[in-house]
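ligand=zinc ion
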Amino acid sequence: MTKDELKRFQGILVARQAELENAIRNRDALAIDTSPDELDRVQHATEREMAIDNLERQSDRLHEVQSALRRIDAGTFGTCLDCEEHISLKRLAAVPWSPSCITCQEAADRNRTQPWDAAEEASVIEGSLMHAA
Ligand SMILES: [Zn+2]
């Protein structure tokens, strides 16, 4: 990656960091509504839950952005944290705070979306029992 490219990513990340910090600071939606109208309160409670979800996502993202900025300082930006291969520029352009290459990211996503569930385990045990018999 060239110095110019690195500078560009740094600029994007710094801007994103400021944006997220602002969004996180603005917690008006988290105030508890004491409206006497029950429907108002219910509606506000739902909005509040959504705002909390959002806040969690934003603060996760902020951490990712901050680690990416630290990697720029450390000179390791653009290197996958898992396999130490280069992360493609195309991927970084889409997700500048990405800590890992597409291969490692996809592997991690697969692990997350398809946990080792009980049904799968049962069928494996069944299979090995049948094999033993
Ligand atoms: Zn990787």
